[in-house]
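Schema walkthrough. Field components (list of strings):
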Amino acid sequence: MLVVLNKDAFQIQREQDVILFRNRVKEFAVRIGMGVVNQTKLITAASELVRNMLRYASGGEVLIEVITRGRENGIRLTFKDQGPGIPDIKLAMQDGYSTGRSLGLGLPGTKRLVSEFDIKSTVGVGTTVTIVKWKNG
Amino acid sequence: MLALLRSKKPQILERWIQHQLTLDTLRDDLISNDELREQSEGIVNLIVDQISEQTLALDPYALEPILEYLSGIAISRARHGFSPRETSFYLFSLKNAMLDMLAESAGSDIAALYDMTRSLGRFFDELSTSTFETFIKGREEVILRQTDEIAEISTPVIRVWDQILAMPLIGTLDSARTQVVMENLLQAIVDTGSEIAILDISGVPAVDSLVAQHLIKTVSATRLMGAECIISGIRPEIAQTVVQLGIDLSQVITKATLASALKSAFSMLKLEVRKTQSQKPFLI
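Field assembly_structure (string):
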């Protein structure tokens, strides 16, 4: 049974928002007592996804939630954009694949950094990525 | 109404100044009374001279001289540190002074007074809106200037030893900053003829793939210049994150601390740091 304890929405429109957003995520992570390593992993994952959002969809909205399941607390981030969408998710999840001349590690790397990862995308409608990082996960 | 306003110009100015002096938004610490009087006189002269059927109809061409003058004042107020409230009340109090004048001379002709008030109100709404826009622009300029300054001071190149440069990076590396970092570093390598550059990322909060890509680019550019680049200040949590993210930094020399980077720089240059022999024992 998953319970949402606390939530906050954050708008991403410019590159400067990336830093503000990361600081906000960090605040939430510190509040639930997440360790430094997991904090850094979560923040890095968040940073990757937010940059993707800015680069390919020129912005969007992120929902930050503190969730609890059983005895474990965690942070769930939902990245929602109205961008062009990803035609082939399987390909996008491969290491080294990029349509934007980057390292191509954003999506697959993020998946390795977090506890749970889910991506839904419809071409022409937008992309929603949901990640969960448990406090001790 | 226009003729009336023109003939009452001195009274309007007097009343406006009296009114301003009673407001609690008066800032005699930021502007002296004489200066305020001079500034206000300029505005009244300009507005009363320029006010016409066209300006009241908000014709942009007719409004231009007034707006231009007001934006100058708004920007100077923003720089002096006036609050938006103080700046907008400054103009609103002029409107009140003019309305008072009209009310006194209109007598019992309520319909005419209403018309005049309405058009004067619209005119001032336009003025204060555009003043407000310029005021914000003035503030934004201050912020932009500070951002530039921060970017400049946050990327110092330090010559730690003959032929060894160090560059501590603090804050987030975005594309624009990387460009500044790279330019400064490469120029410093040329200027000092250095062989080794140490990039210290102790102050970078998170290394994501974009930051890593920028670092790799900087290292490659340094190598093209014939110098070697060491990245130091990799914290344990950053190391774990970078590995899981799948970033390959194996082509780059990395060290945990600036001290160990310096040590390996010394050994690359075949330098040695030794403890000197303690004082020679006295011969008795």
